TrEMBL record:
The chain crosses the membrane at residues 22-49. Keywords: Membrane, Transmembrane, Transmembrane helix. One of its GO terms (cellular component) is plasmodesma. Its main location: membrane. This is Acyl-CoA N-acyltransferase with RING/FYVE/PHD-type zinc finger domain. It comes from Hibiscus syriacus (Rose of Sharon).
Length: 204
């Protein structure tokens, strides 16, 4: 009984600050609920879209017109890059693509590739022809290349740099730079046509 008596006068004094306090609480609760709903929406969207990594493989490569004289190189490279988009709902715009061939970190050939659109669940083959024309090489690189030439096999790295956007439904993302690198690609100088497929690494 005395406990309830002392409790009675308490509410009026608490009532005064209670109204703004409960307003703050309501706003806080609403904000929290909104954050939870937004989080759930993002999670569900993510699960529905289920984004998967794009997969790239260098499928074919050849080297023609190879001539290395006085540290100057002539060569024609042909590559076929297999681009696999495993996504059910994501398609990809390749708005700009360039390819480079490097030998011991020196760029020996460069070219740009026509832009294309890749639908979802699609395999596309990107062809690139690169020409080195009377390219001056450093004496040490030239020497190493000369040594490899005698073995009839030359090892290069093939790089692709693409400006890409993804499309999900009617939504399109901003541009992102996608780097694809195919390391240690062996090209044979002889007429032998065999090419070992190379899985390529990607970096967004
Ligand atoms: C690879 O490219 C070479 C030269 O262009 C061609 O002769 C050969 O048939 C190609 N191989 C495959 C498996 O496409
Ligand atoms: C390579 O190029 C040099 C200079 O242009 C030429 O003298 C030589 O005959 C060429 N060699 C081959 C195998 O084509
Ligand atoms: C490369 O080709 C150009 C044009 O055909 C020629 O003038 C040059 O001598 C060649 N260089 C080499 C190293 O073969
Ligand atoms: C991939 O898309 C390209 C361009 O739309 C089309 O030409 C090609 O047939 C498609 N390939 C597959 C395996 O769906």
């Amino acid at each position: 009984m005395p406990a309830s008596n002392t409790a009675v006068p308490a509410p009026p004094t608490q009532q005064q600050p209670r109204t703004p306090f409960s307003l703050v609480r309501c706003v806080a609760t609403c904000l929290l609920a909104l954050i939870v709903i937004l989080g759930l929406a993002v999670l569900i969207t993510w699960l529905v879209i289920n984004p998967k990594k794009l997969v790239y493989t260098l499928e074919n490569g050849s080297l023609q017109n190879f001539n290395l004289t006085n540290n100057h190189l002539n060569a024609t490279f042909d590559f076929v890059l297999r681009a696999y988009n495993p996504n059910r709902r994501v398609s990809v715009y390749y708005d700009y693509i360039e390819s480079t061939v490097t030998y011991e970190d020196q760029t020996i050939a460069f070219n740009t590739i026509n832009p294309f659109f890749q639908p979802h669940r699609n395999i596309s083959r990107v062809k690139s022809k690169l020409v080195a024309l009377n390219l001056a090489m450093s004496p040490s690189t030239s020497k190493d290349l000369m040594v490899e030439k005698t073995s009839r096999e030359i090892q290069v790295d093939v790089h692709f740099k693409a400006r890409t956007r993804v499309k999900v439904g009617i939504w399109k993302s901003n541009h992102r730079t996608l780097r694809i690198v195919c390391y240690s690609v062996t090209l044979r100088l002889s007429g032998y046509k065999h090419f070992d497929k190379i899985p390529c690494e990607t970096e967004l």
